[in-house]
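Hi team,

Filling in the usual template for the complex we talked about on Friday. All components are listed, including any nucleic acid strands or ligand strings, so the model treats them as one assembly.

SUBMITTER: L.P.
PURPOSE: interface mapping
COMPONENTS: two
RESIDUES: 940
SEQUENCES:
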Amino acid sequence: MTRFIIRRSVASVFVVLVVILISLWITRLAPSNPCLEERDVDICPCVQNHHLDRPVFPVYTPLEDEHPMKQCPGSWEAERRLAVFPMSVDVPIPGAGDGEEDEASGIDETSVTVGPIYILGPGQWTETQAATYVGNLARGSLGDSMVTDWTVGETLRSALPYTIQLALQSLFFALLFGIPAGLIAGLRQNSPTDYSVMTVAMIGVSIPNFVLGPLLILLFSLHLGWFSATGWYSWQDSILPSITLGLFYTAYVARLTRGGVLEVIRKDYIRTARAKGLSERVVVMRHALKGALLPVVSYLGPAFAAMLAGSVVVEEIFGLPGVGTHFIRSALNRDYNLVLGTIILYSSLLVFLNLVVDILYTVIDPRVDYEDG
Amino acid sequence: MHKSSERTEPRGKCRRVAAWMATVAALVWFASTGCGGCNIGGAGEDFVAGYNTDVFTFAVSADPQTLDPSRMSGAPEGRIAFNIFEGLMAPGPTTEGLGEGESVVVPGVAKDFDVSEDGRTYTFYLREDAKWSNGEPVTARDFELSWKRVLTPGFDGDYVQILWVIENGEPYSRGELDDWNQVGVRSIDDRTLEVTLEEPTPYFPELVAFYTFYPVPIDVVEEHEERWTRPENIVSNGAYKLTGHRPQMDMVMEKNPHYWDADNVSIEKAIARIIPDTNAVVNAYRTGALHYSGASIPVAQITSLMTHPDYYNEPMLGTYYLRFNVSDDNALADPKVRRALWKAIDRRSLVEDTMNNLYDVADAYVPPMAGWESGAEFPGYDPSRARELLAEAGYPDGEGFPRFQYLYNTDEDHKLIAEAIQSMWQRNLGIEIRLVNKEWRTYLQDVSTLNYQIARAGWIGDYNDPSTFLDLWRTDNGNNNTGWSDEEYDELMDKARTEPDPERRLEYMQRAEAILVDRGPIVPIYYYTNNVLVSRFLDGFEPHNRDIHLLKYMSLRDPTETNPSGE
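RESULT (copied from the run log):
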């Protein structure tokens, strides 16, 4: 078991590192940059504070000369004459290779030219944006936001409690309604009750939260005035978001429970329990339910992880100050550091929770053994 | 399967199914009909602003990038800065209906000022009782040091250039001049600040009421660096002080007891809630969470509320226009083509039909402001003349006219305008354009790198002077972004800049505007207005064309004392 945990932990660190590097690359590929403002401002202090004039990786394609970030006096490249090896690479376009000319453009488009690609000398590798970022990360810092005056750490710390509470409440909601619904449906298989419960569950799985959320706001906030429409100032404000986020999982839990009940209810030990003359209540609650809930329990981990990361849309709809809201805003603002911080948070949570779930499997079901696998 | 339950099922089941159907029917009914008499606590059409909150609450549209007045730009930031800081002058309660001798600004930290004969030297006399929120006096030295900070080379501020009106401000800021003593700011003593300007600048009193000119507590800034604006560190000199800030949630302002005019400040505490989505703002307002909606609300959401007593429309110092990229060697570089496109746009229909009459049809480029009359002859809507012009330019009936792209940033209102213009050009000129929408940051980059052909644009003035609009189109202006350059225009603007006589100065600018309208790279569409929701129980909220509404002028009446539906 210990070996398994160590192996998985090491693998997890690698997964997160790869996620970071890919995210670094992708965020910089998005057009525009965090320093740009609506009015003409001197972007150079911002660009240089955040080293945005440097290459992201040791292998890179330089910015075009007229790119605004290259206009700053004393930009990184201008100061350094690097050991660079410029070269162009023709990358063939798959499926476009029969040599026929594109009629519209009149150009033979069988490949695109990438480059010139520059490769930094090893001496400069530590000066790339990726190296700086990973270096800071190793020292435990997620860096400063590139748009606001807050550090990424502070921002995420202020947001995470909301996201976690929302996910926990949604999970609670899902179990509170999903298990009884599934139980009732399972015990009355193929009855109209079963069909109606499962129909509702089917609808629950199918309605996307960006439809459900506004509908709930319309009904309960605007028409009935029971809840506030946006923001999170009291516990009541989290009820509608929790339902919106939890409904899908409620429905899913109901289906899992029903399946579990159907499987268990035919087992020998249930028949034995009945034969002993136990009341139906005791048979269901004490014997059947335990077995029927196994699939639900093993679903809890992935469900919780999915709720943490899946609350992005719900937070946006209900204007909650959680991690998801920062994720969206930072992406729109091109706040690279905050985007990356959020991604790291999400991916670490997912990887960690998956690890926990795998470990818990062995506890729930002794047949699972990772040592030999 | 469990037999006994199956046997006892039928009757209970029927009832349950019926209950389900009733619930579903009720939900559908609620969702489809209006409120129909279920008016609870003001929800529904008769809502009373802010009934769900006991503190004055308003919305801002984004988390502030910074609360440092020297570095900021943007509306949400300004909304806070104008209340927690104060400059030598302060924005007045209104910009409309000003009488003779009245100004858009009123005395702030300075109780009075003198202007020299040549209009270049201002001497401000600071009031004795101006204090920081920690009780320390605000001195002329504070202003000098704060302005020096902004002009320090490499200072990461958005509005640094606005301080270049000060003599030698630009070379100092660019690092070409090291000697601060040559920059035109001098604190004579604690209470007297002398400012020498590069050129006569009649709008300078309004500039010093702007946040880039605000004093910052240098000691606190040096001690806490970029964390100095946190509620636990910040020291400010305005009517309010910041006591709370939660990212993406809210900011709290409380009355500053050390403020010199604290006796006349009525609202004790205010919450600025950060709500980026205008739909959510309207919802929050309807459910009584807000007293004031803050930013202007788009057509789709405000239209149904235009008859509500809380609906408020104020003129704005801003123009919505189209810009043409004339730097490429294509049809748009031909003034005749641009004039044809201009004349084929029915602005009246755009405003009245497409925009539900929320805005004011532009009849010039510079929006109306006190003391300014446009001198330009403004071309109207004339489809047949437009067709002639296009034919003269070599595209009879739009034949052979390139299929240009029309760029706008993703937004409902911009989309409506773009589609209307697309169909007008199609109908009147027989030309096709392609609409391209991009999200905000990409749009900004495309415009600033001239990577567009036709783009929507808007400009909100920084101060009540036509130069804030006309400076844009000088060849070297960083906001020009069209590649348009006109020697005569630049010359007129240069003359206006150095002209000490206000009358003649305006005359130069009128002539410049006439050139812009005649052959410029733009088509003005409408003048912005602010369409907001503001509680009818809020007194002291008056129209301001730069959307500056200081809390210190406002007071909140108790809605229960009067009849809420009495209006």
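MY TAKE: Chain B has a mean pLDDT of 89. Residues 75-228 of chain B form a domain with the Dipeptide-binding Protein; domain 1 fold (CATH 3.90.76.10).

Thanks, L.
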